[in-house]
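Protocol step 4 of 5: obtain the predicted structure for the target chain.
Materials: sequence only (see below). No template structures provided, no constraints applied. The aim of this step is simply to have a reference model before the mutagenesis design in step 5. Sequence pasted as it appears in the construct record:
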Amino acid sequence: MDTQKTTSHPSPLTPHSYSSQQEAFWGGVKEAIGAPAIVLFAGMIGFGAMGRTNGLDLWFTGFCSTFMFALPGQIVLLDMIITHSSTLAIAVAVSLSSARFVTMTLTLFPQFSERDKSKGAFAAVHLLAMTAWAVSMREFPMIGSQYRRSYFVGLGLFCWLLALPGTALGYFLAGTVSKTITIGLIFINPLFFVLTFTEIKTNWSRLAVVAGAILGPILYTLDPDSSLILSGLLGGSAAYWIDRLFIRKPIKK
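Step 4 output (structure tokens):
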């Protein structure tokens, strides 16, 4: 068997054989080139089109994509600006919409090696997005801990660099595509996140997706404002306990 050929194109079930930080970095870039980059670029195109359609200038719209780099938070910000909400209300709403980054950081960054848990990791936090987090959670078990931060930076940096061009392209394309297509481009991002998350080989992650899909429409009919948070909280909790009590029962000593 040609061992060099098998290690240069690792499958999702094959460990990545990186031998240097630079190699791991470019491995992350190569992973980003494809579905993660396309999905994020499409979402930013949709956001750029929304910004122009609702009267925002290119500078502000591009600033949001570059320095917020959180599409759900950007949409919340845009919507509340349009409705002339107060500055305090906007700050609270955007902060709540970005609360997911706390759990994403707490689950991803502890997987770095002890050497990489330094002040430099704070700069890498800005590169964290749903796509980068989902792909990293899937790939980290096949990457040595000493190479994980370099891999993540390569993956996240490439996606981040596409945010501004995608937003600008969407801004200039506004009016040439329908509103339905614009919204569809934005929702490609969370759809990719869900599909990638199901590839993580744990039962509870797949159960959480199914439970959320069932509870979401039901809770939306009861209270649209809190349906997203409640479906995630209840669906995720139910998936955890079903997995804990019935699928992976703890061994009684």
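Step 4 remarks: Confidence is low (pLDDT under 50) at residues 1-13. The first helix runs from residue 3 to 8.
Proceed to step 5.
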